[in-house]
């Protein structure tokens, strides 16, 4: 499942790994957070290395729907429910700073950005109250929102809140420019290099799959932090969701002009992508509209959905119903992390002696939040923390956020029990036939949970126990992967680590 952006962008080259090299800043992860913070430091004259286990934009950033918006579905009311108005205001101010930085950067680099209205709509009559609440909280934080009864979506809606003049783009355009600018300033981006551990010595010692490097500071911008210090993995919930792009017939008169997100279930995200130079004429000749449609939704906690392929099919069916003639061109999936109070975690990692920093928990609003996190960490390290970041750093955790965190951990505990109980009381691997193509199952080998899968004609057997904290994995039909329902680690059928808090492959 490759995203529209990753499928149409040439690969970005990698720099060589130099064992024992010494840098000022070592950034781990080449998504939007990592590359933005790397460029900020390189502009300040620091020697910067970005270490990336896969490739630039391989995870959430390259699979985002890339709406750069301050209206974020019903996010502000979720934050308000867990914290104070001052924190809501600081969140809005930080996201505005992130949005402004990215728009100025895109403008300075001539990157195509489309200005669009952001629309959070009610898909049911029950959603109306949520729309109105979001309107009130957004307005109280100074955002120029308005309420409307109508949208240009080709199906019934029940009212919406609109924030004009937001933006959308191709996230790989931004990552490509950040990478080029970083290199221009002497920074290096080393792909295919997994960070396995960091020792908070002076300088910090970074252990990778290819040897060690050293840095004054280490910035973990890995989606969820891959070090267990501070137990942040337990405070974050990993949520996976799906997106697909569609070509439409040339006579499609129903192409919506804004960026839409439902505030109620089923979640539907809708935006269009204008054709790049030269493609418009080809589309016309093929009887297709120049714009591509993107639809997203059907999110769920990682590893806790029985049949993920059904969720992809459901997205296609919904789109075919509402946009007649839509033909899928790409479909993909990605995950992001949610904090109990919906405000990202950004700052230093406990027991990191002020040398290890991290950012996580953007709750699928990382286009603005990744940049606010980068501005925050750059300010923290250079002694110039932005005022809104000071408020976010010092927010008080209210009982509602504690209750959310406890609820999430109770669910995690239940999944841990369910996984082990299911295997120990279930059949032995040898008693079961090999799985059909694209399928996988977990069974017992002795007392050990073993995952068996067949993908592209190859049958693999791996330990089905997550090396992070021992959760029993589940099979993801849509992406043919082993996923951990506890903290969101994911593995390829042969056990190779794909993402998540763990740093180890599965044993085969
Ligand atoms: C389906 C979906 C749609 C979304 N749509 C939107 C949207 O419209 N608007 C919006 O604002 N936000 C959106 N988001 C959220 C946004 O995409 C993310 O919050 C943001 O991209 C996160 O950026 P990041 O740089 O922190 O993480 P990532 O882009 O995930 O980058 C982390 C990088 O770290 C690397 N890494 C991990 N572990 C290691 C290791 N041990 N060693 C070395 N490298 C490592 C990974 O390979 C990866 O490249 C969406 C998210 C999803 C899932």
TrEMBL record:
GO terms for cellular component: cytoplasm. Signal peptide: none annotated. Residues 429-508 form the Rieske domain. One of its GO terms (molecular function) is metal ion binding. The keyword Metal-binding applies. Transmembrane segments: none annotated. Keywords: 2Fe-2S, Iron, Iron-sulfur, Metal-binding. This is FAD-dependent oxidoreductase.
